[in-house]
């Protein structure tokens, strides 16, 4: 309920600042919507530890993270890739909402089709400004058919869809109830290409930070004699890594930094395997 109240307050503030946004609320922008919380977009390419907290990635040195990176690490419990489209005045939605603890809901009926962005036509109540769309538990659909579907009802303002209500259609299983509680008041924002790229950069940085932390822990676990033997080799590895990837202090665009971080992570993961072989 608190999240719903906060989202409503943000929407009200947007209306005060931009009357044109509210006046045009009858038209929902088409495009890709990602779960949005506290300035961060959480799509299906978001760092996998997000929403599970540092206990799942305790090798990451949180003191080295900025506030934005800490949010991605700790705050999200929902991920989504939802494509909203409109044709002949009718809205359709395609994609999946993943909940860290409670599985996923998809516009596809079968698990094998979840990545195919199968459209489900939505009903739109213009007077109330509510968009009603069907989502399925694909695992349940195998045995229960259309009964496994639920309606998610979104309100909207500008570029944001907010879960206003959920019609469980008689599904009383506790997993459906848990999902309903988790989604109530959740916001999904239209994600531009630049915003998607920035989210991917944050994810790449955390992926590297996790591998780098594991490597540092492994290095410290080696006895001093072994470390002394490996020092020269370690320096050469760092030199080669920076030559091929660039330094982690590199400045550049999100796209350039993603490439550098993925390269750094690749080198680091190979080094981890090597040190583990020595350790055991």
Describe the structure in your own words:
The protein is an alpha+beta fold and 280 residues long. 44% of the residues lie in helices and 24% in strands. It has eight helices and eleven strands. A hairpin with a 3-residue loop joins strand 4 (90-99) and strand 5.
Provide a quick synopsis of the model.
The chain has 280 residues and is α+β, with helices and mostly antiparallel strands. It is 44% helix and 24% strand. The termini are far apart.
> Which fold name fills CATH's third level, the topology of the largest domain?
Lipocalin
Approximate helicity band = 40-55%
Beta-strand residue fraction: 15-25%
* Tally of discrete structural domains: 2
Shape estimate: elongated
Q: Give the name of the CATH architecture of the largest domain.
A: Beta Barrel
The ordered H/E elements are: HHEEHEEEEEEHEEHEHHH
Number of helices: 8
CATH class of the largest domain: Mainly Beta
What value does the average pLDDT take? 87
**Uncertain stretches:** 4-8, 10-25
Secondary-structure blueprint of this entry?
Elements: H1 2-17, H2 19-23, E1 31-37, E2 40-42, H3 67-74, E3 78-87, E4 90-99, E5 103-106, E6 119-121, E7 123-125, E8 130-136, H4 138-144, E9 149-157, E10 160-167, H5 174-183, E11 187-190, H6 193-221, H7 224-245, H8 254-279
Antiparallel strand pairs: 1-2, 1-3, 1-11, 3-4, 4-5, 4-6, 7-8, 8-9, 9-10, 10-11
Helix pairs in contact: 3-6, 6-8, 7-8
